[in-house]
Amino acid sequence: MKKFDLLCASAISLLAAAPAAAQTRATTSAPASAPAQGVSSNDTSGYAPDIVITAQRQSQTLQEVPIAVSAFSAAALESQQIDNASDLQLTLPNITFSKGNFTGASFTIRGIGDLCVGISCDAATAIHTNGSPLVATRIFETEYFDLERVEVLRGPQGTLFGRSATSGVINVITAKAQTDAIHASGEAEYGNYDSIRLKGMLNLPITETLAVRVAGFYLNRDGYTKNVYNNTRIDGRNMYAIRGSLRWEPSLDTTVDIMGYYFKEDDDRLRIQKQQCQTDSTGVLGCLNQRRDNGRTNTNSTFSSTLSSREFLAINTKSAAVGGLLGLGSLYGPDVYAGSPILNDPREVSTAFTPTYKTDELQIQGRIEHNFGSIKAQLTGIYQENSVDSSQDYNLGVQNRAIIQPGLNGLAAAAAGLVPGLPASYFAPIAAAVIPNGPTGDICTSLPEQSGLGSYGGFKRCGPVPAAFDRSVQKVKSWSAEAIVSSDFDGPFNFLLGGIYLDARVRDGDYYVNASSIDYLVGVLGSFTALGNPASQGGPLPPSFLGTPFFRNATPYFGLKSYGIFGETYFDFNDKLKLTLGLRYNNDKKSLQARSTLASFLVPYTQTGSAFSSPYVGSYDADPATAGVQSFAFRNRTFDALTGRAVLDFKIDDDHLLYASYSRGYKSGGFNPPLQVPGLTVPDSFVPEKIDAFEIGSKNTFDNGRFTLNLTGFYYKYKGLQLSRIVARTSINDNIDADIWGVEAESVFRPGQGVAVNMGASYLHTKVTSNTLFINQRDPSGGNPNTVIIKDITNASNCVVRANAGGAAVAQAFVSAVNNGINASAGLDATNGLRGPTAFSSDANLGASSGAFSICSALTAAAANTALVPAGAISVVEGIGVSLAGNQLPQAPVVKFSAGIQKTIDFSNGMSLVPRFDVTYTGESYGNIFNGPINKVQGYEVVNAQLQFNGAQDRWFVRGFVQNLFDNNATTGLYLTDQSSGLFTNIFTLEPRRYGIAAGFKF
Description:
By secondary structure, the chain is mainly beta. 11% of the residues lie in helices and 45% in strands.
């Protein structure tokens, strides 16, 4: 810590001593001309007065492009410490970045991000490499290296870039091979967390027209997070990438580029940094609705706890003795995490499961360009493969084995034939799978594997404490081909015409949740189901478990075939006024094969090969929304749309540009996975997004390049915004409408020789305009005081009992009466059966609702029985919807501000010293469309600093740096889990403070 303080003090002192300088919002190399006044000849900020970009598919300076675009050159990326996608957000107005729940990530631009979750979702923010669209890219995991520039376009794109995007485009442009000379560079960095980062590049001319370039990086570091369970560190990194490029210029008019890229990661990265919960003591919801505390969900609310509880087993078997013997705990007792430590530090967890994270990506791209005089033609193709396989502790905690030990003892007794009425042949296979070494030995959990047999097929892992973990896996292959023809006539008219075809396929896009308690309950319930088969249907069935012994949302196949035809025309009325008109036709054909299983059908313990070869699999319907019984849900649909844009720009003079534009954005719809719980009102698909975007802006350069100021204002009319939520253990997507408007400002100022100051600021207003009612998972009562929130013990979903007259007391009396009837039919009483409603805590933010464990189908039947209650007096509903109108969109901070200052101090011997300081503030936002205090994401600041000493002609450098100076652990995004998981919130955070030293060379 003392070393760190010394480093910080030294950096700040140097920054204060030198009238600091700036950062750069630039892109590629500027034309080779004399530097503007006030610009050092040895400047390393990455900014030049005439920055050349290709945001409009032609080489233009940043200041003459009539769209909102930011760009970073290689020097800018280095000086601003932009090492990856998460860093990229920090200095961009109205842009945020956050990791997602299922190995994904989201760039949100002007309030629009990848809020749709699922394999069939398109990206709102399109990611491109050298202009080619990428599918499910692993770009958020990798590090930036050997880039020419990064361009970020804000606003709908479609008439210029290959796939239509509603929020914007991030275009990563790699450095190309050069034929002029041999070039090489290398860099080695060492930092805290025992971090080692290496980068290198070699550019080699083969002939006067042919050159090759090879570059790569390697990163290895210890974990950011301490596991207090075994005093280890997790969330480390071990990754590398290599890129090879070839450029051939057979003539002055022809250029051929070929690029190959491979990235690989294999480490213990955490997908989710922390889980937060205001613990619900009743267990009906798991987590309450007022705050995100660092508490744990009450797991009595979860699927595995409700169905393995002594109350459920007693009701299911009509025997209090069986429930008491085999139950893994009580619905009304302590949950399985009782006694687990509450850790307030976001960089501390307690887990007996070490996370795993494996991913790789391959890209092969080719491009040929040829100038036919005033016509330019370009043909580009890219092939992409990537995969990801990630597992981590589902609850980020260690279970208390003592809670479930009595049930394990009871299972061992039944397996040994010591319990009258429970045949050993039906229970010994359960014990062999879950507790093979006896009730006090290791507890086993199914591995997340495709056979669906899990621990009952020998696929398991065992340990001294119960386990619960998930696995997210996916394999993607895609290719695209794009052709563009553009003109460069001397007259007032020019055009661009293009077409693209993309074919993408996802294989084995699966999400698993495994738990030893699930293995236990599917065996116990399977055995009782087999034993209870009616005599009229042949009597007891062979000993069986319920398959699959884990939750598996499986997508064996998803296919996308997409094509687009797009073009623009440009008409110069005169030297100052120009009109751009663009049009695009999109066509997206999607097909899906999917199913979701968890304790869905009987599987004999003797089954081999696959659970789906079970003789009883015919009772399982993978697609309840379609008539009949299907082994998979199949979906096919084509989405298409006509979009375009119009831009009018006025060039006041060479330094000042005004523009106004209208554009229509589009993102295709998709499919929601089939649900396991029948009867829930969830659409099986979601419709496309459409956006009407209006924008005005000005780009201004003053004092021969000393000062630039770009201003933008925009208004969006959004229809069908796709938003995700978890329902019945499945991520589904809804559509809403919204209005968005805001302003942005970006500037670079050079007050003196070698000094550069950059600033960016934005204001954003988002508002939902739909009046459609949606059920808030955190409060299914919708704030109605005359309700009782029910936890259904047969599937761990929630429903709501509402008294339509007489108030809350009527609803509570009704639930108590039905629960008493359920107990009586099973021969139970209130001591070993279901109890009446219980009040939530006073700070639950659930109105006056109370909660109870019950069975929703029994409540529904009772409410319809006029012999019990007057007609219409009681309603049993999935939930009571509330309007979202007026709510803010998620991940849409109202304000954002950034500033950087840099000073290049030149010495007479050609060396230079460059101190730099950057600060970013991202304002408050919400992590969930329902808003409210529980979903608020607090504003946060990030401060970076570095000091770099450069050798003569920049041949070498030594750099000291610190990122996130004040070690801000701010939350960047939220994800709410479903009711059967206990409604905890997964949070995603900034990386912690990093500091270190680097040295490198180049020639």
